[in-house]
Design goal:
- With 84 residues, this protein is α/β, with parallel strands linked by helices.
- The chain has 3 helices and 3 strands.
- Strand 1 (14-16), helix 2 (23-34) and strand 2 form a beta-alpha-beta unit.
- Helix 2 (23-34) packs parallel to helix 3 (51-64).
């Protein structure tokens, strides 16, 4: 999925990565792919343990692009106030 995100594949509009245990390193890789993406409208990362740092990395990436993301699920990722 990451190569498709990086290439702005217009057929990839929803990405469901629930319980993949991607952790913070996976969040960094995903954030890097999201920086130039403008086709994804829904991203479901439920239950991946990305934590505060992963949440911050993803937020920074989404700030950098012209995303049309309308749905973002970060539920059950051990994100505390510091990462929100």
């Amino acid at each position: 999925a990451l190569p498709r995100l990086r290439s702005n594949d217009d057929t990839l509009t929803h990405l469901h990565m629930t319980s993949y245990n991607i952790d913070v390193e996976g969040a960094r890789a995903l954030a890097d792919a999201l920086k130039g993406n403008n086709t994804l409208t829904a991203l479901d990362l439920y239950g991946n343990g990305i934590g505060n740092e992963g949440a911050r990395v993803l937020a920074d990436a989404l700030k950098e692009n012209n995303t049309i993301l309308t749905v973002l699920n970060l539920e059950n990722n051990d994100i505390r106030v510091e990462g929100a």
